[in-house]
Amino acid sequence: MRLAVITDIHGNYRALQAVLSDITGQNIARIVSLGDNVGYGPEPDEVVRTLVQHRITSVRGNHELALVNPAYHNQLNPPTRLSLDLTRGLLTQASLDWLAELKPTLQLTTGTDDETGHRCRFVHGCPPDSTTTYLLNPTVDRLQHIFASYPEAICFAGHTHTLDIYVTHPDAAVERLSLQIGRRNLARNSRYLIIPGSVGQPRDTISNRAKYAIWDQDLNSLEIRAIPYDVETTVRLINERGFPASNGLRLQW
Questions:
Q1: Number of domains making up the chain
Q2: pTM above 0.90, yes or no
Q3: What is the pLDDT of residue 116?
Q4: Taking a C-beta distance cutoff of 8 angstroms, is the pair 50, 13 a contact?
């Protein structure tokens, strides 16, 4: 089984289109989104309708949380609040209802649940179930605590828009590995926490291309793919629809 993991689309419909077009040729059995499907970008309803059309399962991101939780919305910085207020006005009621029903975690068993470890967890922020906690340069002690908080062999998280991979070995040693564009093998007797970049607003310092991951269960491999898309149209729509200019500038690097 080959599983595609997308995250942090942030209303960037052009980037999502490009990624889904690429996925079409990758023999993918299922696609999972790690949330923040909306916010920042100018075409949130198009994004949600596409996710529904393609039957893409999603967990809840903090931007979805902010749409339904006024207290959390008010904690965000002014440009983010403005982006979400504009986003709300661009969403149909059906899309708002779909976003409101998202759950904070998803657990899948993609094969026989044995010592090979095919159980997989998906969360937006930080496992086991945080929608809002960032994983930015965690200490070894924190990583050990995080890995001990959930049982799955593979966990995918988003939220930071970066490319990161953390591993805990059978001897309990924990380390951060380099995650680059391309394919790498995973050790079957280790556990991994993977942050696969961002589709709609990458912050990985590699390129502004839309990033997503493919996990191949049979080969136990991970591939990060970087896909070009129509950045210029996205930036133009950001400006035309009154979103903060910084939302567009973040895409032009």
A1: 1
A2: yes
A3: 44
A4: yes
